[in-house]
Amino acid sequence: MKLRLHFVVDPMGWLCVSLVLGVWFYNTIFVPQLVLFPHYSEGHIPWTVVVCYYAASALCLAALLRASTADPGRLPAEPHIPQSERQHWELCNKCNLMRPKRSHHCSRCGHCVRRMDHHCPWINNCVGEDNHWLFLQLCFYTQLLSLFTLLLDFCQYYYFLPLTRLDQERFATRHELALLRLSALMALLMFGGMSGLFYTQLTGILSDTTTIEKMAHFSNEMFTSKRSWQFALAEVCGTRWKLLWFLPLRSRQPLQGGRYSRAHV
């Protein structure tokens, strides 16, 4: 399956994505320059810490870009409906097109999305069947990078040895606001917000309920059967290989034999 790009023309969404990229850029540029590289050069931290920080930063950026530009599961204007699945399709009363059940019409994007969870302004895209796994990755890697940044900010002032090649008084005067307060505040807000969002998304996946269905108090015995957490995540990520669940630079295929295994539409 080719990587299909999907862009939403929404200035407010672009602004939100720009703010997220700004936070990522700040922590990726300033934290290494002020903490990682100086302490690594003086032997206070191993090179593995530097590599792990940049790996977390790169995976976070990749997940953000993929989640923002990946097709969430947009339905075409004239979908091919197999005869055996016609009973599971319905007519959208907003765009007057046929769509599978559990699809939803996004008023911001102007089209229906298969198994739509919600529209997220922070990625300027819908979260649906085909990019839900990328959104879950984004939440996970943002938590990881934010926690890493918090630990580095804490260690800079309470654990790391003083830098012998730097005037500590001048450093504290020039960089205290930039490093300790602003960086730690952003990391704390991102970690707290993403932790709650990640928990909400994970519980929704395990219970097979989207955010829209939760808000509408959706109840249907067809979607309430218990499943193992491995199968639930494998179905969302499109593969049973657990290592691939953490890699954003790949395409997703519907899981063979899964409940939402679909024909090409």
Describe this protein's structure.
This protein has helices at 11-41, 47-69, 132-158, 168-207, 211-215, 229-237; strands at 89-91, 98-100, 104-106, 111-113, 118-120, 125-127. The chain has 265 residues and is mainly α. The chain has one domain (11-73, 83-160, 174-246). A hairpin with a 4-residue loop joins strand 5 and strand 6. The two termini are 13 Å apart. The model has no long low-confidence stretch (mean pLDDT 83).
How many distinct folded domains? 1
User: What global shape is seen?
Assistant: elongated
**Roughly how many Å apart are the termini?**
13 Å
Structural class: mainly alpha
Report the radius of gyration as a whole number of Å: 22 Å
Topology, element by element:
Layout: H1 11-41, H2 47-69, E1 89-91, E2 98-100, E3 104-106, E4 111-113, E5 118-120, E6 125-127, H3 132-158, H4 168-207, H5 211-215, H6 229-237
Antiparallel strand pairs: 1-2, 3-4, 5-6
Overview in brief:
The chain is mainly alpha-helical and 265 residues long. Helix content is 51%, strand content 7%. The chain has one domain (11-73, 83-160, 174-246).
